[in-house]
Amino acid sequence: MTNTKTLHIKFTDAELRRLAEQSVTHNVRDHRYPALHFRFGKDRARGSWHLVRHVDGKSPSRKLGNWPDLSAKTAIELLPKKLAELTADPKALVSVSSWERVEDLLRWYTDRIERTRKLSAKWKGTVRSAVACQLLPRLGSLSLQMVDRQALDDRLIWPMQEVRSLAYTRQAFGLLKKAFKQAAGLDMLSQNPLAEVVFSDFIDTPIRPKPCALRPHQLPELVKRLSAGEVRLTAICMLPLMILCHGTRIGETRLAKWQNLTLEGEGEWFLPAADTKTDNDHRLPLTRHTVALLKAYRNRQKQAGYTGAYLFPRGDGDPITDNQSQEMIASLTAGEWSSHDLRKIARSMWLDLGVEYFIGEMLLNHAMDDLQAAYIHTHAETLKRQALERWHLWLEAQGLSFFATETTPRQAAIATAPNTSSGAA
Q1: Does domain 102-201 have CATH number 3.40.50?
Q2: Is 330 exposed, middle or buried (0-12, 13-18, 19+ CB in 10 A)?
Q3: Domain 216-403, what fold?
Q4: What is the predicted pLDDT for the residue at 187?
Q5: Strand order of the sheet with strand 3-8?
Q6: DSSP code of 409?
Q7: Its pTM surpasses 0.85
Q8: E strand spans, 308-367
Q9: Residues with Cβ < 8 Å from 212, sequence gap 6 or more?
Q10: Facing residues of 368 across strands?
Q11: Which of 97, 199, 217, 412 has the most crowded CB, counting CB atoms within 10 A?
């Protein structure tokens, strides 16, 4: 039977472990620290620390943390600070997690990311890699009590920027800041030491976007390669071509389903929110060019015996993986450019062809504020279609001949290159 009487000892981890094995005492105190109480749990290998302050004849108890995660030494060291916080604000959060080092927080955050269903496998891999390869080796052993600007500068920012790009260094810092913010928001930390810290505190050099590796003069050669007999109307041809024609992300494109493509009347490609980076439904017009192209591609798939759901299936009928899609692009490029460069060149060419800035942003499915959305709402769909028709006519003029079919009258293509010095209309 548990002894409800309070036993007075000298708080040490060794003494608490001795009591856990040899006594049935539940409550423990130390005469030197009257405001700090200890209680054994049902599993006597564990217990909890509590702060007790006498205010207006009452003695409210506030949990400080769990033992042995929060050692006796650390609990005693935290006592003055936590009492001061309660004196200033009786409702102040005084509990601390069992974490002692940045490593504890990062492993918790990584596990949480892995178990979040709405996040893509690609993003989970990015987080996993940044934590394992950058944050843990550089900051894992750092005490959470020692996290401040100087420690981050000495151990993470400055050494990392010497060997990695500024963009990647900023991304790693951003992940660290998100981890601390989420932990503090869930009361896993008593305070967030990074709440007021920003990347420009360490490096104020502007980080410019990586320039596009594809230039307009390279597009004729590219469309010639995509029209070549060995790749014509194959997945290796169609994946980059769909990205180039519509400015979509590779992750959105590889998940495309036939049921989300309307190939009759005014064609449309519907991208459900679950497949987009922005978590918003996205609708793209299909021009006469891409409708003809997709019909020919579907017929080729059927002739090969495939009638499944996806435009880009793998052997088991599911869509190709992110790695498989990247490898497919790499097989065409020899590492000279990436799938994102197709998206970039499309955006650049839309501007050169006079496509209005906001329409280009809508085609890319970039987030816009309410004022921008209201400005373009009325005629947006018509303007999106006109923009893609202009773009596809230009691509046809560069040699993408299989845009046209026998059943689709060929329109006069734009024979001249756009004015590359022009901006948005």
Answers
A1: no
A2: middle
A3: hpI Integrase; Chain A (1.10.443)
A4: 66
A5: 3-8, 25-29, 36-40, 47-52, 61-67
A6: P
A7: no
A8: none
A9: 337, 341, 344, 345, 348
A10: none
A11: 97
Tell me how far apart the alpha carbons of residues 136 and 139 are, in angstroms, rounded to a whole number.
Answer: 5
Nearest-5° Cα angle at 51, 46 to 54:
145
Tokens of 159: 């050494």
Identify residue 84 by its one-letter amino acid code: A
Which has the closest alpha carbon to 329: 247, 240, 248? 240
Closest Cα to residue 220, out of 403, 360, 394? Answer: 394
- For residue 115, what are its two tokens? 């178990």
Q: What are 358's two structure tokens?
A: 């906001």
Place of tokens 């995509």: 226
- Sketch the domain layout of the chain as residue ranges: 3-88, 102-201, 216-403
Cα–Cα distance between 329 and 347 in angstroms, integer? 19
DSSP 110: H
Counting as low any pLDDT under 50, the low residues of the chain are 1-2, 404-425
Cα angle 153, 154, 156; round to 5: 65
Which CATH code fits 3-88? 3.30.160
Specify whether the CB–CB gap between 262 and 286 falls below 8 A: yes
In the 8-state DSSP scheme, what is residue 32?
T
Tokens 């891409």 sit at which residue?
Answer: 290
Q: Which amino acid is at 71?
A: S
Ranges assigned E (strand) in 179-296: 261-262, 267-271, 282-286
